[in-house]
Amino acid sequence: MKKAVKDYHPLEGRGLTRDPMNKDVGFYSASGVYGDASLATVEKGRNVVEDRIRYIVDELRGFILE
Questions:
Q1: Is the pTM of this model over 0.70?
Q2: How far apart are CA 36 and CA 29, in angstroms?
Q3: Please, which residues have CB within 8 angstroms of residue 7's CB and are 6 or more apart in sequence?
Q4: Domain boundaries, the chain
Q5: C-alpha distances in angstroms, 48 versus 11, 28, 29, 38, 61?
Q6: Cβ contact 49:56 at 8 Å
Q7: Beta partners for 16?
């Protein structure tokens, strides 16, 4: 995780943006990270992806059954 960075902004309530010109959306983040990416693990990433896939599949099943 050599490239993992922490990217926080002191003002709460607004997210980060990758667009340095768009000040309305949030605060510029060159890394695109919001929080502390150094805390990430393969297991956490796998869980996030599996949960997202499960959610998408459930939503698609709902459309099929309608």
A1: no
A2: 13
A3: 16, 29, 31, 33, 34, 35, 37
A4: 6-65
A5: 27, 25, 22, 16, 20
A6: no
A7: 27
| Residue 48 clears pLDDT 70, i.e. is over it | yes
User: Quick check: 40 and 31 in contact, CB under 8 A?
Assistant: no
18 Cβ contact partners less than 8 Å away, ≥ 6 residues apart = 28, 29, 30, 32
pLDDT, tens digit (0-9, with 9 covering 90-100), for 1-26:
677 877 776 666 666 777 778 777 77
For residue 27, what is the DSSP state? Answer: E
Please list the residues that pair with 35 across neighbouring strands. Answer: 7
- Whether 27 and 9 have beta carbons less than 8 Å apart is answered as yes
CA distance 35 to 15: 10
